[in-house]
What we know:
This protein is mostly helical. It is 69% helix and 8% strand. It has helices at residues 2-32, 42-51, 59-66, 70-82, 104-125, 130-151; strands spanning 57-58, 86-90, 98-102. A hairpin with a 7-residue loop joins strand 2 (86-90) and strand 3. Helix 2 crosses helix 5 and helix 3 (59-66) crosses helix 4 (70-82).
Amino acid sequence: MRTDCRRDTDGVLNELLVKLFKNIVEIEEKFLITPEFKDISVNDMHVIEAVGITEPKSMSMIAKLMSVTTGTLTKSMDGLSEKGYVFRNRGTKDKRVMFVSLTEKGRNAFFHHERFHRNMISKIKDGISEHETTVLIYALAKLNDYFHQIYKR
């Protein structure tokens, strides 16, 4: 009897996770790529998010945050620069280091993306207790750790 219950629970978890991953990708793209931002991709939005709105970041720092090579990042930055979302500057101490910051257009995209995530978190937390939120965070952290472990193999 217990194994049937466990199998049912495992099946429900698997189905929910598969649907969740698919929905996040599809819904994020629909929400983020509006007429104002139709010239960039969801991946570009994630690059913009990694650049952030604080101080300029080096290309190597952004690449590390995104778990990509600087070569891969350079290609994305070329497009974002041409479209007016980012500004690149050589370092003053070391001219080999390239620093990136967001333009006004890039900041608008950053806040648009941030709004999507803020709304998502608000809806997740709506109607659940602090304890349930803590359990959800624990479960998601375990899932994240699992993906991190298999990715690093």
